[in-house]
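User: Second chain of the day. Same drill as before.
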Amino acid sequence: MATNTKKTPLKVKENLGYKIFLVINFLIMLFVVLVTLYPFVYLVSQSFTSEKAIIRGEAGIIPKGFNIDTYKYVLRGEFLHYYKNTIVYTLTGTILSLVFSSLLAYPMAKSELKFNRVLTPFIIFTMYFGGTLISNYILIVNGLNLKNTVAAFILPMMISTYYVILMKSFFQSIPKDLEEAGEIDGLSKFGVFIRICLPLSKPILATMTLFYSVMYWNNWYQAFLYLNKKQWPVAYYLQTIIRGVGAKEGDGDATSVSANIKSCAMVLTVLPIICVYPIIQKYYVQGMMLGGVKE
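Assistant: Same format as last time:
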């Protein structure tokens, strides 16, 4: 006769020491969260605080003398055009970086590759020794004739050696049995990479997406070197605004926002990345753990 037996879940006895540990752990984590959030909250508050309140030193986490003149000043003119440029550069650059970085990292993860012993040290060498500013500028402008083109902004940053090494470590953690099973089913090496390895690599791909996106989004120096004004990304446009405020002291509009314009520029620059991060945060943690540890 069958008897119904229910398995009762095991309960951990929470003694006094364990409860104290939980309380202390919670307080430490709460302190870390507050310390981490405070600078950004203060930054947002300062961007909405009036000029007079900032001069009097009354700026805090709550805006005083609520003021949106700074945002009106920054958002007027061609700001949306530069924002569109940044979105195009970030999307294009991130996709190209993911494609070429993964195509480079996958062969490096294969110890049986004929020239792997030469390829891997050569790639690592570029992480420590690279071209100088002058040589890179001559190559981009004179050698490749890419002045005033989007390629001049994307190409110098398209492959990061450090990110390639992270992806290489992740590809090495994929069981070889899966790849061998794919080859038995008739897949080529490239087919194994596309149909087996990449679908299993969502964590590291999401991590690299975040890293490359932040890199392209915040970059303004390449624009300073190679792009004309119509091609500027928003990061460089905001740089020019910050530098130009001091030169426009005679302009009452500029003077009224000079104290908090940096805060406004930082908020507008970092806000899209903050919105994207929670979406891929789960994959980001997995990618860093699996990509940085080799079994």
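The longest helix spans residues 16-48.

User: Great, on to the next one.
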